[in-house]
Amino acid sequence: MNDAARRIQRVYLTLTLGNTIAASFIWGINTLFLLDAGLSNLEAFAANAFFTAGMVLFEVPTGVVADGWGRRTSFLLGTVTLAASTYLYYVMWQISAPFWMWAVVSVPLGLGFTFFSGAVEAWLVDALRFTGYEGGLEQVLGRGQMVQGFAMLVGSVAGGIMAQATNLGVPFLARVAVLLAMFIVAFRLMHDVGFAPERAGRPLAATRAVLAASIDNGLKNPPVRYVMLAAPFSAGVGIYVFYALQPFLLELFGDPKAYSVAGLAAAIVAGSQIVGGWLAPHARNLFHKRTSVLVLSSVTGAVILLVLGYTRIFWVALVLLAVWAMVGSAATPVRQAYVNDLIPSKQRATVLSFDSLMGSSGGVVVQPLLGRGADLYGYPASLAMAGLIELFAVPFLLASRKQAAAADRAATTPSGPGRESIA
To answer: In Å, how far are 182, 231, 240, 267 from 219, measured between CA atoms?
Structure first.
């Protein structure tokens, strides 16, 4: 990696660190926050579903912003939108707002995240290639995963401690403050490199054109299509499990007010992300194909969730949670590298956003479905149900594997082809 590539990587890691710390202040207590506001389990996860519906609705339009106005512009808009909608969440908690208000505000909250999805990763990949970087993407994306895990560890623990020492609303105010600081950081450090935005005069026409391009390079590209079709199951389950673990673990712990325990659960996931990010390039070198890593991860995650659904011991549940998160985190950079190697630069942000849209669409359906299951049968049963849903992703991943795309066999390092693998 040359000096220019190192600079790009440092900016990417800085943006990842700040954004994840801001976001993760509430990740350990978000479900508890919604329940404390007077919502039922069904309503709490339905509010989350409206959040993911916002992501589905705005993924393509914000892809137009990223590809047409620049990835930097998209990032800056994301910080402002997310800060404003997070503050509205705090206000609604204070007034014990009815469910319909949570549903309405959750949509722009999802919009804030769509400005980030695809844009930052596309910015990184194009900038690295512009600098002449020839190494595997797993290496850089794995480092990003590690930084993200560290940031989540810090943010989620801090959020849980803040909530325990003050109240459930303070972590939301902390998120707003850090997001506004990240706007300043990104304004100074993030500049589009190796990519020239193509600004369109008519937004609706541009949106249709970008949607067509994302379909041509995404759903009409068989290896990408099947990975995208697997996303609703795996991503939908992942979103539900992460938030359901908060009340589930407090139930096992025996103290519904131990908010720091909920923060600890999110911190364990964060620590597992660090380990998973470090393992990603090493795990990739054990296999001949990237899809082998993805299939094994999906099956292993499903089995862990099924076992977790029958667990009644708090510390055993924490161990299973750590392993589940580590397996998924190790596969994430491999999946990112696989998809990026399959799509062209010009539509990179859009296709990545469309991929995120597919995952979010699963969350729209899976979250309220499993939330209702938690109301009727309890959290353990809903986690076991989540494991069964995860298995639906496996046939699609196997179908992508059968396409024998060159990106499936791509090496993680320049010396990769000479390494031995097992599948």
So the answer is: 34, 12, 25, 35
**Residue matched to tokens 């999802």:** 110
Q: In the structure encoding, which two tokens stand for residue 204, read together?
A: 């609706």
Q: How many CB atoms lie within 10 A of CB 406?
A: 9
Helical (H) or strand (E) element with 185: helix 170-189
- Predicted confidence (pLDDT) at residue 302 exceeds the cutoff of 90: yes
pLDDT, residue 263, reads: 67
CA distance 137 to 413: 8
Q: Give the angle 251-316-379 at the CA atoms, nearest 5°.
A: 35
What angle, 0 to 180 degrees and rounded to 10, lies between the N-to-C axes of helices 3-24 and 137-165?
A: 30
So what's the pLDDT on residue 421?
A: 42
418, amino acid identity = G
The type of residue at 193 is V
Q: What is the mean pLDDT of the chain?
A: 85
Nearest CA to 183 out of 351, 22, 6, 383 is that of 22
Cα–Cα distances (Å) from 279 to 143, 205, 327, 386, in that order, read 10, 43, 9, 25
Is 60 exceeded by the pLDDT of residue 418? no
Structure tokens at 176: 């707003």
**pLDDT at residue 4 above 80?**
yes
Residues 6 or more apart in contact with residue 113 via CB below 8 angstroms: 55, 78, 82
Residue that has been written with the tokens 């720091």 in this structure: 260
User: What is the token pair recorded at 205?
Assistant: 């026409």
Contact call for residues 49 and 183 (beta carbons, < 8 A): no
SS3 per-residue string spanning 126-155: HHHHHCCCCCCHHHHHHHHHHHHHHHHHHH
